[in-house]
Amino acid sequence: MQLLNRERAGLVSSRPERVMQFGGGNFLRAFVDWMIDHLNKITDFSGNVVIIKPTERGDYQELRDQDGLFHVVLNGIRQGELVQEKTLVDCVSRVIHPYREWDAYLKLAEQEAMRYIVSNTTEAGIAFNETDKFADHPPREFPAKLTHWLYHRYTHFKGDPERGCVLLPVELIEQNGDELRNCILQYADHWGLEPGFATWVQEHNVFCNTLVDRIVSGYPDAEADDLQQELGFTDKLLVAGEYYHSWVIQAPEWVAREMHFDETDLEVKFVDDLTTYRIIKVRMLNGAHTAMVPVGYLSGMRSVREAVEEPHIGNYIRQLLHQEVMPTLDAPSQELRDFAQAVIDRFLNPSIHHQLISIALNSTSKYRTRLLPTLLAYQQKQGSLPPRVVLALAALTVFYKGEWLDEKIPLQDDPARLRFFEELWQKKDNDPEAISRRVLGQSEWWDTDLNEVPGLTDMLARFIELICTKGMYKTLLKLQ
After folding, report:
1. For 349, phi and psi rounded to 5 degrees?
2. How far apart are CA 361 and CA 392, in angstroms?
3. Collapsing DSSP states into helix, strand and coil, what is residue 72?
4. pLDDT at site 79
C-alpha cells in the first residue's frame, strides 16, 4: 500500500493557519487535532494547525512525510452499544522545528490569523529556568520559547490589542493556564523586556485553565494491518484511543462563541471555574479506580474490565458512585448520573486493557486524595459512614499485606509505607481493631488522626476481620 499523503488522498487545504501547537504526540493528535478537524468539517471555524517541536531530539519526520495527515481510531461504549469511529484528520498543515527553523518559528508570529496556542509538554514542561537567555535561539524551556514568540508578535504588531492569543495548555497540572502565564511574565522580567509587553500579555491574551480526559493508547499494533487495509493507505501515525472525551475550559464567554464548539456534539464545556469539574473527576473516576483495585484483586480479578463485569464487584462500584460519592458533590444530579454512567462505560471498554496491579501504584496516597474526601464529606452531611468507601480502605489494608491466598502481591509504594504494613502484619497483637487503629492513626498520611472520626475505627476493623476470615467475595455480599 502507498504511504498516506495529501496528493494520494486527494486533499488540498486552503484554510488559514490559526492554531500553534507545541507537541505532536499521540494525545494531542487524538484529542485536540481530532476536535479541530471536527470544527473544520461541521462549523465555520476554518483553521489549520502548525505543530511546533518542543524539544531538540527528533523531528516529527513521519508527520512531514504524510503531509500532516493521520487517522484516529476510537473504540468505546456509547449508550450501551459498542462503537468504533475512524477519522482522517487533515487539519495539520506543517511542522516547525525551532532548533533548526528558528526564523520560521518567529515568522509564524507575524501571521494575523494565528489565534490559538495549544501545548502538551508533560507535567514538567511548564517551568521557569533562569539559565534560559533571550539570546538563545531557542531557549530550553517551552514557556521561554513561547515568551520569545509572543514578544516577536507584540513588537511586529506594535502592541495591537487585537493580535493577542487564546492559550489552551493541556498539561496535567492544576491551574495550567495560570502557571503558563506566570512563567511568561517571569521570563519577561528576567530578560528585561519592555514593561508594555507584560501589560499586553496580561490584558490582551487569555490563558485558559483546562482539564482534559481521554485514554489514548497510541499506535494499535495488533490491529494496524487490518485497519490500514480497510483505510487503503499505510499510515505510520495511526493512533487509537477511547471514544470518551472531555475538555473543560475555564474562559470568558466570548472564547466559547469564537471557537464554535457549541455547534458540535463534542464534549467541550466552557466554565467560570474548573474546581467542581476537577473534584468530580478525581472523586468519581479516580476514586472508583482506587476502590476497585484492592476489592477486585482480592476477589481474584486482574483487570478493570474483568472486575466491573463481575456482578458483585460491578454492583459495588455502581453503588459506591451513586450512593456514597454523588451525594457529597455539588453539581446537578443528572450531570453526575451521566458522568457515573460514562465511568462504567469506560471501565467496560474492551479496547482498553487496564491491569489492576498497574493502577495500584501508590494506592495509600491515592486513597487520601480520591476517597478520603468522600468519606469525610459523607460523614459530615449524612451523620454516618459510607460503608463502601470504608470497605475500600479495609481491602487496601489487607492488600498491603503483600500476600493473598498464598500468592505474592507486587506492591509499589513509598518504601516507608511498605515497611509500615510489613511490620503491621507481623505484630503478634494482630487483632483487627489494633490494625485498624494503627492504619487510621497514620496522621502524616491522612493529615489527621482518623480514629477521631466517629465509628470509623470499629467499622474498618469489622471489614478487615470479614475479609481475612470470610474472603473478599463474601464480604461484598454483606453490602448487597
Report:
1. -60, 115
2. 15
3. strand
4. 73
Count CA within 13 A, CB hemisphere, residue 244: 26
- Alpha carbons within 13 angstroms on the beta-carbon side of residue 167 total 29
Encode 27-54 in three state secondary structure. HHHHHHHHHHHHHHHHCCCCCEEEEECC
Q: State the chain's mean pLDDT as an integer.
A: 96
Render pLDDT for 235-286 as a digit per residue (tens, 0 to 9).
999 999 999 999 999 999 999 999 999 999 999 999 999 999 999 999 999 9
Q: Which strand ranges, in their side-by-side order, compose the sheet holding 239-242? A: 81-89, 70-78, 239-242, 216-218
User: 187 with 135: CB under 8 angstroms?
Assistant: no
Report how far Cα 329 is from the mean position of its chain's Cα atoms. 20
Residues of the chain with pLDDT under 70: none
Taking the C-alpha atoms of residue 199 and residue 197, their distance in angstroms, rounded to an integer, is: 5
Block residue for cell numbers 459523607:
378
**pLDDT tens by residue, 278-319:** 999 999 999 999 999 999 999 999 999 999 999 999 999 999
Those residues with Cβ within 8 angstroms of residue 388's Cβ, 6 or more apart along the chain or in another chain: 291, 316, 319, 320, 323, 324, 479
- Quote the cell numbers at residue 47: 483553521
Asked whether the beta carbons of 134 and 191 are under 8 A apart, the reply is: yes
Q: Which of 26, 35, 18, 432 is nearest to 245 (CA)?
A: 35
Query: Judging by beta carbons within 10 Å of its beta carbon (0-12, 13-18, 19+), is residue 98 exposed, middle or buried?
Result: buried
Same fold, 6-271 and 290-477: no
Q: If you ran DSSP here, which 8-state letter would residue 110 be given? A: T
Domain boundaries in the chain? 6-271, 290-477
CATH class of the domain whose range is 290-477: mainly alpha
CATH class, domain 6-271, is: alpha beta
- Residues near 135 by beta carbon (within 8 Å), at least 6 away in sequence: none
